[in-house]
Design a protein that fits this description.
- The protein is an alpha+beta fold.
- It has 2 domains: 48 residues; 50 residues, no CATH class.
- 41% of the residues lie in helices and 11% in strands.
- It is built from 4 helices and 3 strands.
- A 3-stranded antiparallel β-sheet has the order 1-2-3, covered by helices on one side.
- The longest helix is centred in the middle third of the chain and has 17 residues.
- The radius of gyration is 21 Å and the shape is elongated.
């Protein structure tokens, strides 16, 4: 396994940044340390490096709803009931673009649409 190293860099901004090269994609990944002093930035960088090396860090889920749905259907849907696919269609009608968009507000919006007149309940 390749050793992953995170480095502090100065983008001439308010805060110092930290960066590493993703061993799988070869792309550079950077984010703010939230620190203005080098010593504090080095501590923050060491914590992030440890999280990355131990697999504790996961970046925010930016997968699109379509990609999630395709993957879910391929891997999981075969073992579930036929109504499950229909329910996923209803969620899509709310206007979800990314999986990360599903939060309390989106669920509330979904529930309110189900309560509208003309929305039939199945029994």
């Amino acid at each position: 396994m390749e050793v992953l190293r995170v480095h502090v860099i100065d983008h001439v901004r308010k805060y110092l940044y930290m960066r590493y090269t993703d061993p799988l994609t070869g792309q550079q990944v950077s984010r703010s340390t939230g620190e203005t002093e080098r010593k504090a930035a080095d501590r923050t960088t060491a914590k992030w490096e440890a999280e990355l090396q131990q697999g504790r860090y996961s970046k925010p889920h930016t997968i699109s709803w379509q990609k999630f749905r395709r993957r879910f259907e391929d891997e999981k849907l075969l073992g579930l009931s036929d109504n499950y696919a229909s329910n996923m269609n209803h969620i899509q009608k709310v206007g979800i673009k990314r999986l990360a968009d599903i939060d309390a507000a989106a669920v509330s919006k979904f529930q309110s649409r189900l309560r509208r007149p003309g929305c039939r309940r199945r029994r």
